[in-house]
């Protein structure tokens, strides 16, 4: 059985190390995988009844899916105003500051 991953031309090159990319900066961490899958992640503390504009640590070719999970309190945070290829606005509807993990996946 033969297969091709990430433009490989032979079995010994099915997945080359240089096809994986990752990094981090002040906006979070990111990774790119063979075949085009990408993710970015960050943690935020969003003040009560306010929003946070997350500029991804790397740009996506199109708008990614956004997943938000609360680290404390009720998870009343959501995407406010749409998702772009470079950023997303997240709103905290709680009456207190909310710490969240945010994942962008494409």
Commentary on this structure:
Strands 1-2-3-8-5 form a five-stranded antiparallel beta sheet, with no helix packed on it. Helix content is 0%, strand content 49%. By secondary structure, the chain is mainly β.
Strand order of the largest sheet: 1-2-3-8-5
Radius of gyration: 17 Å
> Given the structure, what is the number of helices?
0
* Helix percentage range: under 10%
N- to C-terminal separation?
29 Å
Query: What kind of sheet is the major sheet?
Result: 5 strands, antiparallel
Q: Identify the overall geometry.
A: elongated
The class by helix and strand makeup works out as mainly beta
Strand content bin: over 45%
Total strands: the figure is 8
Question: What is the fold's blueprint, element by element?
Answer:
Elements: E1 21-25, E2 28-32, E3 38-46, E4 50-55, E5 65-70, E6 77-83, E7 87-92, E8 98-105
Antiparallel strand pairs: 1-2, 2-3, 3-8, 4-7, 5-8, 6-7
Tag the structure with descriptive keywords.
3-stranded antiparallel beta sheet; single chain; elongated; 0% helix; 106 residues; 5-stranded antiparallel beta sheet; 8 strands; mainly beta
What's this, in brief?
With 106 residues, the protein is mostly beta strands. The chain has strands spanning 21-25, 28-32, 38-46, 50-55, 65-70, 77-83, 87-92, 98-105.
